[in-house]
Amino acid sequence: MINEEILSLLGISSQAYYAKIDEWESWWRGYNRSFHEFCEGGVGGRLVRRELYRMNMAKKICEDWASLLLNDKTTVRIGDENAEGFVCCVFQKNGFMAQANSLVEKAFALGTGAVILRLSGIGEKDGAIDPLGDADVSFEFVDASHIVPISVVRGKITEAAFVSGGIIKGEEYTYIEAHTLENDGYVIRNEFYVRENGELVKREFEDCAAEIHTHSSIPLFSILTPNIQNNIDSSLGLGVSVFADAIDCLKGVDLAFNNFCRDIKLGGKKVFLNQSLIKRDDYGNVVTPDDVAQQLFVTIGDSDFADNPMIVEHNPELRSAENSEAVQCHLNYLSFRCGLGTHHYTFSDNEGRAHLTATQYMGERQDMRQNISKHQKNVEIFLIGVVRALMWCASEVFGLDIDMTTDVSVMFDDTYFGDSETYRSRDLEEVKLGVMTAEEYREKWIGGIKNG
Prior knowledge:
Layout lengths: L3 H6 L5 H15 L3 H4 E5 L5 E5 L5 H13 L5 E4 L2 H14 L1 H15 L2 E13 L2 E16 L3 E7 L2 E13 L2 E12 L2 E12 L2 E5 L7 E3 L7 E4 L22 H19 L4 E4 L5 E2 L5 E2 L23 E4 L5 H18 L20 H7 L1 H31 L11 E4 L8 H14 L4 H8 L7
Antiparallel strand pairs: 1-2, 3-17, 4-5, 4-12, 6-7, 7-8, 8-9, 9-10, 9-11, 13-16, 14-15
Helix pairs in contact: 4-6, 5-10, 7-8
């Protein structure tokens, strides 16, 4: 979506980074043409274009991270009752948690994702937002290919433009929504461009205000990135894909899997017949003994069948054990490089996993557990950013009595490393010992915004 032409409109030059995003997206989609497409010699030396068999593990990695970090057990808690009721209603109405889970997957694939709050049914009066009676709020979920950072402070994007496009009545258009922070708060500017004679030309769009002054320091967008240091361009503010440094591991998995599939494809029985057993019909078509179910043959001469058999079988080796081991090894390397530990994907019993004690099993999962805690920090900041923006909407647009300074917290699902009943029983014991209050227990296991 982002190209040099759009970046020039925004006065930004970071085209090279968006090329990396395109590469990550190709792996997430499961097909990187420069790697997965190849040519091999065919009959008569003619080149035949082929594709590697592939496992599409880049997408699987991101799906698993999304499931671990944000699922139906993730709970948001807000200290203000009015605010919690409003946020819960908006989340449920828009199916926020399900879409946010998908955003986590895309953010971990492409390095960055964002949620933009969209206000409708509002106007502007005396430089302030003026609800028109049918005000509403919704969400727009975008990935890194639609995000252009404008200002970055201490690694955090504070101002950004969000780019989208499409076709209206046969005309190709580009929509740019820029959120900039000025002295009196954030200003949202909406610009529409259509392509005329190959160039983008600005055009007025009646259904959307050109500028919206929020008079608030709270941004109506929230950015999510994996908690991984950007080793490509740390000044840009965008994150890096969770598999950015594991591209070679992705290649290794697909090469091993391709070899496995090729061996199976080429491993069928081959039967070679002596020319004397072949006949032809009236049209010259070859007829083999099996075509006419012939079982009796007469040979002429002193041919030694032991040295010169009339029918020869060839049964290629499938090398199943070797190929399976190669695939498993590369999966171990890949899961390790993507922060999921060395044995997140295991398809064989050769490693004796059934004989591991619970302590050994948890030891293997320690790397992943540490990385989950690390990434949860960024997911928490992202969710709290969305909630704070909604609280502002509740107060300024919908006129609700909201305490903007109230506490907002996020509780994550930790049952991957143990069942929920065990943790619940443990917390009850802590309540009895006075380590945890009854209110804290109630908030953790009963209250909060869970899913929508």
